[in-house]
Amino acid sequence: MSRVVILGGGVAGWMTACALARALPAGCDIRVIETADSAPRGALSTLPALRTFHGLLGLEEGALMRAAHGTFKLGSRFSGWASGDHIEGFSDVGVGLEGVAFHHHWLRARASQDVGPFEAYSLAAVAARIGRFTRPSEDARSVLSTLSYGLHLDAAGYAAVLRAAGPGVARGSGEVAAVALSAEGGVEAIELVSGERVEADLFIDTTADGRLIGGALGVAWRDATAWLPCDRLATREIALRPNPSPLTEVEAIAEGWLRRVPLRDRDAVALAYRSDLTSDDEAVEILGGEDHVEPLRNGRREQVWRANCVAIGPAAGQIEPLNGSDAHLIQSGVSRLLGLLPGRDGDPQAAAEYNRLMAEEMDRALDMAVMRYALSHRGDPLWTMARRASPSQPLAYKLAQFESRGRVVLYDEETFMEGSWTEALIGHGLLPRRHDPLAERLPPARAGEALARLRALIRQTAESLPSHADALKAHA
């Protein structure tokens, strides 16, 4: 392979270009064609795994955060979805006792004792709620070793860092006038409005509307708006709070949901809503102003690799940005592509496997977002509409198993592991009807004492940590 063209730019385009530039031989020409609608906007709320991707790209975290006005993220706070609010933190919740998962001991004890909320056993959640942060400890004996963290990043600043980190990548801009198809059913060339004809061995589509994978190659879109009803996203930036929280805040309201991402110099706020229930003007009024309004298209492509064209990012699929999975799915798409890169003549088996893996991963990430609507207690029209749609069979089975006996069913290619699902399900009010009977091997008094000690240790540790603002000064 000697020529790769990435259409679309933005965060998805530059994550892809930066990774390919480091993985492909130096003689391979990589070109990014930035389209007018690819300019990155708003903020990213990421999962911890993205930091591993940054390490592979050689990005120094402090420099990245300075350039992208970044803050640390210990988890997300969800309010308005069920009774009260809850935090889903990036750390272990409790510890297994007598070989039984912690949430079974918590379920058993809460029936007869005051054991506090489930999040009280997560160091990340407790620290985030009081605005504290530190990096994880490498000492496995320390409770600080249970921590992990993601990042809040300005999208435009992040894309600029990636552009600078992609050695030898050619950057240009242009709009597509026509796409020439090859006899084999792939993309032979892109013809730009300027009159330039751009040929390549591999085309990567990161455009919001899937201009190549959908428009030229005709790969169908699998719509998910029955489960995720919001189809518009309005964004604005507001004044910085004195001590930015190490949390993404997601509040459910009648019209949809509000997300607040704290950056170093401002907060990025987004409102997701449904256009036939809430007008753009009404959304702007809720936000108190707006910087941008754009379509939100929930779903995925039936195939994300066809012939010599691969879709990554919004061209491949979109899920309401509730969980930080948007950047993660880009990262995963890039990583899997590197593992299955074809030669100049292509590889149908590689394409088939890539399509299988990405379809499963996007469907499982979709389940996490759908779960929040399915378990919501709201009676507003938008929320009632979402609950009318039966969840997918895998999600329905997962919910039934957890409600019955507290078992978390995990499928292949899950983005969110057992601890994340347990926090989310309990936080949204789905409590199992019974706990694991093996938890009863531990006498009730001993179990209560163990939980109380752990709760106190986590609280004391969290209170001893520096404030998030001080941690930013020290590390970023």
User: How much helix, percentage-wise, in residues?
Assistant: 25-40%
Q: Largest sheet, order of strands side by side?
A: 6-5-15-16-17-14-18
Q: For the residues shown, what is the average pLDDT?
A: 95
How big is the Rg? 23 Å
The fraction of residues assigned to DSSP E strands is: 15-25%
Shape: globular
Distance between the termini: 39 Å
Strand count: 22
Largest sheet: number of strands, sense, barrel closure: 7 strands, mixed
The computed structural class is alpha+beta
- Count of separate DSSP helical elements: 15
Low-confidence stretches: none
What does this protein look like?
- With 476 residues, the chain is of the alpha+beta class.
- The protein has a domain at 91-147 and 392-476.
- Helix content is 36%, strand content 21%.
- The strands form five sheets. Strands 6-5-15-16-17-14-18 form a seven-stranded mixed beta sheet. A six-stranded mixed beta sheet has the order 8-2-1-12-21-20.
- Helix 1 runs parallel beside helix 6 (155-165), helix 5 crosses helix 14 (444-464) and helix 9 (325-339) packs antiparallel against helix 10.
- The radius of gyration is 23 Å and the shape is globular.
- The two termini are 39 Å apart.
- The mean pLDDT is 95.
List keywords for this structure.
476 residues; alpha+beta; seven-stranded mixed β-sheet; six-stranded mixed β-sheet; globular
Give me the secondary-structure topology.
Layout lengths: L2 E5 L2 H14 L5 E6 L8 E3 L4 H8 L3 H7 L3 E3 L1 E5 L5 E5 L12 H9 L12 H7 L20 E5 H11 L4 E4 L2 E6 L5 E6 L4 E3 L2 E4 L5 H6 L4 E3 L8 E7 L8 E7 L2 E7 L4 E7 L6 H8 L4 E4 L3 E3 L3 E2 L2 E3 L5 E2 L6 H15 L8 H27 L6 H8 L4 H13 L12 H10 L16 H21 L3 H8 L1
Parallel strand pairs: 1-2, 1-12, 2-8, 5-15, 12-21
Antiparallel strand pairs: 3-7, 4-7, 5-6, 9-10, 10-11, 13-19, 14-17, 14-18, 15-16, 16-17, 19-22, 20-21
Helix pairs in contact: 1-6, 1-9, 5-14, 9-10
